[in-house]
Amino acid sequence: MNLIYNSEHYSVVEYGADADHEALRFGGYEITDKAVHREWFIAGSRAIDFRNDVTQLIASEPTVEEIDEFLGQYDASMAQPVYFH
Questions:
Q1: Dihedral, 16, 21, 24, 26 alpha carbons, nearest 10
Q2: pTM of the prediction?
């Protein structure tokens, strides 16, 4: 597990590929919207697509605001509440 992005509004954690767990065969990403305390875990082909989109985004040397805007497109999919212990 590796924190790959952290701003005031979002965080993204990358999970490495794990052949022993089908859900992580291609790795995965956990995107958290800090404002609404919701998260979404992306695995499989969606993780591959997300990784490709992020690679293209990074190549454009985006600002924090542009990265947050990119992550905002996933807000509607974030249904899992985040609980703090």
A1: 90
A2: 0.80
